[in-house]
Fold these 4 entries.
Entry 1:
Amino acid sequence: MPDVSTDDQLKTDEGTESARFLARRGVVLVKEFRPVGKFLGQRGELLAFETLSLKVVSGNSKKCSYGMKVDLYDSEDNFDSSVCLDFDELDEFLQAIVFFQATARDLLVQKRDHTEVSYSTKDDARVGFYQKSGEQTAFLALPGGSNTVFFPVEELSDIVNYISKAKEHLLSCGASPNQFAVD
């Protein structure tokens, strides 16, 4: 088997480490998933959150990557799209959502025509909320899919809980702030 450390197996520095792990060829890839939560969007779409643990084995070398995966299913339960968040991205994603929650509370009492606040991940998923005519709606848009999932701003707390549960589990599996590990 080729050495895992060769750069030619990684085509780009863009996106998540998890996506680059999944794109590797000529190595043994071990994928482990664990569901952490799901909820329905306003139009019946389903968002499913799960942890992601990836190990690439080549000869005596083993590399690990940890993160969270979000799958989107349409209202007829057909798979639509998916995105990965690396472990080191989870804190920033979590902080963005906590910021959204505080900002939404502050903006709710203000008269605004249209305001949108969002955060984009390494793999171009977007999460945020908008306020129009005194009403607020949160959203999560996954790249490559046809749907943006809309839901009440209050349900951002569900995502906070899912991220917290995912981080706790991934830490118990060996993830660390420097999540790209070599054994």
Entry 2:
Amino acid sequence: MKYSTESEQKRLEWVKSIFADADKLDLEKYVASFTEDARFQVGNEPPAVGHAAIKHAGGAIFSAVKAMKHDIIKIWLEKDAAIVEAQVIYTRLDNRVVPVQCVTILRTRDNFVADARVFMDISPVFSS
């Protein structure tokens, strides 16, 4: 299925807004972009399923850093998915800045994220 330029632009802006909510550490708004039964997984961590579990998993990351910024390198759009390549720049609570390479696959349903898989090694953010 081919998207029109206008619908593709809207989808790109929507995807960017999800990452912007994460960058604002706005957990409520971030979680609201997911379906009620969504799956969220970062690296090798067990998947979080549903809003409460995603809020818990996201909250653990959001509360452990002072700031984060997704510098998006490229977004690929498919019919019901988006693939996002980014460098995520974390500012730790001790003010140390740690950049991490990341690829996220978002599977979508009805203008919400139904499945998010984040491929990155987040361990440098939490190591001493």
Entry 3:
Amino acid sequence: MDSRFDEGMRVRTEVLGAEHVARAQAAQTPFDADFQRFITEYAWGALWARPHLDRRTRSLVTIAILAALGREELALHFRASRNLGVDPAEVAEVLLHVAVYAGVPAANHAFAVGRRELGFSEGAAPGGTAPGGTAPGGAASGGGASGGVEPGTAPGGTTGPPRRDQR
């Protein structure tokens, strides 16, 4: 039987993608190594590995919580939702719930992050091109599909809160 850490690495990789997990491991330092092990074992190996909710549902619940709390990991979990087959329309429904139960400002911010991370830009369908030839996400996408942060890191792998232009 796999250890909780091994199970956590397997689930984390399936949800977030091998590239993201490799970047997170490469960015690990002696300062945060125990924390990284903790989230791998408990968030991914214990919680996300539980059988009673499927990963799509866990993804939507996670998006709702992160949106309601305004957490920086929201962009990462929008991208991860695509790995799990979550339809952007389902994400939008969850964000409408956030608007009612957690507040319109929280949902407004989450919709802005979602537009960028799920490939919507003004006037474009997901994966399409916006008027004027701008690709989804545009130059201001803040990391694109390969970006994302783990708890405690800002975009670009630095510690501390993200810069205002990276939120």
Entry 4:
Amino acid sequence: MSKKMFANVLALVIMAAMVMTACAPAATQTPAAPQATDTTAAQPTATTAAAMPTETAAAQATDPAAATATVGATATTDAATATTAAPVVDMKYENVDPTGQKITFWHNQTSKKEEALKAIVADFNKTNQYKITVEATSQGAYADIFKKVMPILNTQDMPNLLVAYQNNAATYQLAGALADMTSMVSSPKYGLTADEQKDFFPAFFAQDIFPTYNNQRLGIAPNRSLEGLYYNADWLKELGYTDPPKTPDQFKEMACKAAKTPFTKATGKGKSMGFELAVNDASHFAAWTFAFGGDIYDAKTNQYTLNSDASVKAMQFIQGMFKDGCAAQPAEQYGDQTDFGTGNLLFAIGSTSGMSFYSGAVASGAKFNWQLATVPYTTSTPVVDIYGASISIPKSTPEKELAAWIFLKYFTSPEVNAKWAQTSAYFPSRQSAAKSMTDFLGKNPQYKVGFDLLQYGKYEPPVPGYDFVRSMIQDEALAVIVSSPYPDVKPILDKVNDEANANLKDQLSQIKK
């Protein structure tokens, strides 16, 4: 989307907020002043699936971080470095009675996932003590939901529960359209205890707090995915290795050896390759930067750091693999999955939400033992890129907002969270969900590896315009760095970083107006 188009859309959002608020219930007529702060808050855009962190490695239009940018000028990118101040909790919901409320829930699930969600909703409707009734309906992909929501912000047509990436939530909040869930989460009567809050994986729990909006909580995570390393364990064994690589040097050694030593069970006719990197996903850039001990954004200075030492070293490392013939680009979209399945590719990096697609490719291909591991790292412990949509509560009445929260609390409770995770193949947001997943984890060793890595989660920058920056990374950094003739990495990243920060400055200036 062009900057001019962005400006037009932003103007439309602000105008919609002003006009539609007049039609809203009394409880919704307190718009939040647009502030600069995004995944990922401040600019309303409709982006493609490739523009945001990919939540699936297959060609499914319903599972990528697919919607817009977000507003987060000072948001931190992982729980370990969180600097947000402790929220001031009021007791506004303590004397609210949610009994008998009817709640609408807009989500993006289809097929088996939708059936599983309907079952959870039905159980809640039958068992909750307040006789709350939730009606859950699929509204299409994330981008479809965004388009449907934008024209009805702050009206009675808004649903009471809404699936939204952090960038979507922040965009909606430009119009003050979402309820701050801080008081609900911390309510002595209806909320989560301190131990229950700690039970959420730290990065998951922190991701939906927006410093730009005075540390408001605009969502809560029911699940997440992560960027993982898929590898052919049988081929690795043939090459003389018993364990997957932990360091980049080990990764390159194995990949280069695979490029020269075909897998004996390979069914594909193509050339053997150690690693393939799809350049249409900027999350690869983030994941490798994290693995090299860096970040792509500095929350303290509110600046991108795409040209940091870690980013430069990570991209130089990847480029070196291409130069040495140990890595290549997939020949087609999702070609890395295909090549992995036929036994022509040793390593592939992608979202764990695409695990079933890798499994299917192997089952219909070379039928080998495949496993999941973390992206090779230089740090003392792994650092994994995590992402996923959360659920927000649009403003309505205190009774409906509280009723919506009561369902969301139920949905994210350990046992229900575990049930949802096992059906959806996403990872649960609650650590104690594992207690109800013993058999599932035992039967799905690749999934268990991913689950055990969640404690090392880190997320991409929640800043305005990040979708544009992702496109810059894909088009100007990844695509160039992995193509011959191979240029000097540093000047390219310097250029992209300057463009990214100029874009950020531009977005923030427009928001402040």
